[in-house]
Automatic annotation (TrEMBL):
Protein name as it appears in the record: Antibiotic biosynthesis monooxygenase
Record's keyword terms, sorted: Monooxygenase, Oxidoreductase
UniProt KW Manganese keyword: no
Organism, as annotated: Roseivivax lentus
Gene3D superfamilies: 3.30.70.100
Record InterPro entries: ABM_dom, Dimeric_a/b-barrel
Highest classification ranks of the organism: Bacteria, Pseudomonadati, Pseudomonadota, Alphaproteobacteria, Rhodobacterales
Positions of the ABM domain: 1-70
Pfam families: ABM (PF03992)
GO terms assigned for molecular function: monooxygenase activity
Length: 98
């Protein structure tokens, strides 16, 4: 299984709008995506109010590529999110179980 860690920093002043998008659109979308085993959303904290995180566990590389394409390092950006986010970071890891 592949763990995809997707971190975003919102544009200044867009924290509330992104939080709404995150809870109402991004999290439900990812939870309903074929190939996703688990979704772990991380909300902004007081010391980092513009930073959000989404950890997704994918069944395998083929499932991840079916969603994002061959280049798994490129973000899948919803049109509603595009103007709210200043920076995106994506990392992938092999999930350790047991």
């Amino acid at each position: 299984m592949i763990m995809r860690v997707f971190q975003v920093r919102t544009r200044p002043g867009q924290e509330s709008a992104f939080a709404t998008f995150f809870h109402d659109t991004a999290i439900p979308l990812m939870k309903s995506t074929d190939g996703i085993v688990e979704v772990l959303p991380g909300a902004a904290r007081a010391e980092s109010p513009r930073e959000f995180c989404l950890v997704m566990v994918w069944r395998d590389l083929a499932a991840l590529q079916a969603f994002v394409g061959e280049d798994i390092d490129s973000p899948h950006v919803d049109a509603a999110e595009a103007e709210l986010v200043e920076r995106r970071v994506i990392r992938h890891y092999d999930l350790i179980t047991g």
